[in-house]
Amino acid sequence: MANVSVYNIEGKEVGSLELNDAIFGVEINEHLVHMAVVQQLANNRQGTQKAKTRSEVSGGGRKPWRQKGTGHARQGSTRAPQWTGGGVVFAPTPRDYSFKMNKKEKRAALKSALTSRVVDSKIVVLDEIKFNEIKTKNFANVMKNLKLDKALMVIGDNDANVILSARNIPDVKVSQPNTINVYDILKYDTLVVTKDAVAKIEEVYA
C-alpha cells in the first residue's frame, strides 16, 4: 500500500495515511483513461453547429445564363458552392457526439487516473478543511500554505463554506467523491483529498 503524508490547512505534516491499492495502486490503463477523457469532452459538446447546403439556401432557382455562347463557364444556379451566397458543400448538421462506456471501463479509468496521481507524487491528503464563513481569502491562504496553484480538491461532504470560498479562485475546483471524473483529475496539477474523502472514495469504488 502507498503511504502518503497528511497535512493540515497550515501546510504542516500531521501524520500519514495508507492508501488502498485496489484504488490508488492499480495497473494504469492509458487506453481507458484516454477513452474516458474523450467521452467526457464529447458528451459535453452541444452538437448544434449548422450550415446550409445548396438545397437549403434561398434563391438561385433559374439558370443565370444560357448554356452556350456567352463565353462564361456553364452555370446551373447562383446558389452553387462556388458562388458567393451559395450553399456549403459538406455542411455540418446538428448531431449527437456522445458515446457510452461500460461501467467497469469507467471505474478502471478512474482508478488508473487516481493511481497516476500517486505515482507522480501529485496527491496531497488533508486532515480536514473547515471554514466558519464564506471567504475567498481563507481558501487562498490554504492553497498558499500547501504551495499549490492549480488543484482539484475533493472534500468528504457538501460543505457550502468551502465550496463557495473556492468559487472565485482560478484553476481551483472543489468536488465530492461521487462527482470526481478522469478529466478533472488529469486537468489539474495536483489532487488534494481530505481524509474523509479518501475513505468515501475507497468505500464507493473498492
TrEMBL record:
Report keywords, A-Z: Ribonucleoprotein, Ribosomal protein, RNA-binding, rRNA-binding
Q: Drop me one GO molecular function for this one.
A: structural constituent of ribosome
- Kindly list the biological process annotations in GO that this record carries: translation
Q: Which Pfam families match?
A: Ribosomal_L4
Keyword Aminoacyl-tRNA synthetase carried by entry: no
Where in this protein does the record put region Disordered?
A: 44-86
Q: Which Gene3D superfamilies does this chain map to?
A: 3.40.1370.10
Matching InterPro entries: Ribosomal_uL4, Ribosomal_uL4-like, Ribosomal_uL4_dom_sf
Gene Ontology terms, cellular component aspect? ribonucleoprotein complex; ribosome
Q: What's the stated role of this polypeptide?
A: One of the primary rRNA binding proteins, this protein initially binds near the 5'-end of the 23S rRNA. It is important during the early stages of 50S assembly. It makes multiple contacts with different domains of the 23S rRNA in the assembled 50S subunit and ribosome. Forms part of the polypeptide exit tunnel.
Q: Which family does it belong to?
A: Belongs to the universal ribosomal protein uL4 family.
Assembly, in brief, is: Part of the 50S ribosomal subunit.
Q: What is this protein called?
A: Large ribosomal subunit protein uL4
Originating species:
Bacteroides pectinophilus CAG:437
